[in-house]
UniProtKB/TrEMBL annotation:
Keyword DNA repair: no
Domain of life from the UniProt record: Bacteria
Record keyword Transmembrane helix present: no
UniProt name for this protein: Histone deacetylase
Ranges where the Histone deacetylase domain occurs: 21-289
């Protein structure tokens, strides 16, 4: 059975101006349940991740400031909203959701986290709505537990996975592949193992062609036995922050390319949802739900 990490705190309300993007964390599972793609038994509620697992990836002093809610005002501005107890617990549960999903993926082939994809968080910094890097923490956890030997992280959010790139810059067992807007946030990029910077306005055919070509390179270079996929839907033409021009059909085809490649290679796959900021919430939810629909068609 395909398992999906979700918790009520995922939709924790943020300060005015940040609440709209959080709606998707309620609406994605509701839509999937309503249409019959999933049943309640597909969902699991993660507990907060343990401190010792966090410290496999994040700097001890950074974690101490997070845990004590003592980040400076400047550091909190980098997050994009004030740090508080509920926000930290949300992040801890999201991270454990990705770890739990990795275990389920090892057993069944694929698993999801309705949230996650917090790829702007580096070893000792927060940024861009990201506090703890869920997929990086989980990758280090799998290596530490000897549950994987070589890992590929496929990041197709419109923003570069700068935190993920920094965390694994000296780790040869983890190969980072980021395909992102060149002139978009973050404006100071890190060096992934494979970066594909895109011009503003890149549309369906060019995007999918570049993905197919470079995904093959990533698999050849990485030789993974486990894959993480960050499936942000901020690549859509309707996205307020994305600057690309993909149709919803092309976004779905993007997911199909990644999922079919992992399925063909019999590689366990954990998927975190990443960003999505279209004006109409229905565009965000439907594009994300397409990823689940494809996985259920392929893996069940």
């Amino acid at each position: 059975m395909i398992k999906i990490a979700w918790h009520p705190l995922y939709a924790h309300p943020l300060p005015e101006g940040h609440r709209f993007p959080m709606l998707k964390y309620e609406l994605i599972p509701e839509q999937l349940l309503h249409e019959g793609t999933i049943e309640p038994s597909n969902l699991f509620n993660p507990e907060p991740v343990d401190e010792e697992i966090i410290l496999l990836t994040h700097d001890k002093n950074y974690w101490r400031e997070l845990k004590g809610l003592t980040l400076s005002a400047k550091e909190q501005r980098r997050i994009g909203f004030p740090l508080n107890t509920q926000l930290l617990e949300r992040e801890l549960r999201i991270t454990q959701g990705t770890i739990g999903g990795a275990h389920f993926a090892l057993a069944t082939g694929v698993a999801f986290n309705v949230a996650g994809g917090t790829h702007h968080s580096g070893s000792n910094w927060d940024e861009g709505f990201c506090i703890l890097n869920d997929q990086a923490i989980t990758a280090n956890y799998l290596l530490y537990k000897k549950l994987a030997k070589r890992i590929l992280i496929i990041d197709l959010d419109v923003h570069q996975g700068n935190g993920t790139a920094e965390i694994f810059q000296n780790e040869s067992r983890v190969y980072t592949f980021s395909m992102h807007g060149d002139k978009n946030f973050p404006f100071r990029k890190e060096l992934s193992d494979l970066d594909i910077p895109l011009d503003d306005g890149v549309a369906d055919l060019e995007y999918l062609s570049l993905l197919e070509k470079n995904l093959k390179i990533a698999f050849e270079k990485a030789q993974p036995d486990f894959v993480f996929y960050l499936s942000g839907v901020d690549v859509l033409s309707t996205d307020k922050l994305g600057k690309l021009a993909l149709s919803k059909a092309a976004c779905k085809e993007r997911d199909k390319i990644v999922l079919e490649a992992c399925k063909a290679k019999n590689l366990p796959l954990q998927i975190s949802m990443g960003g999505g900021y279209s004006t109409d919430i229905k565009d965000i939810v439907d594009a994300h739900c397409n990823t689940y629909r494809l996985a259920f068609d392929l893996f069940t």
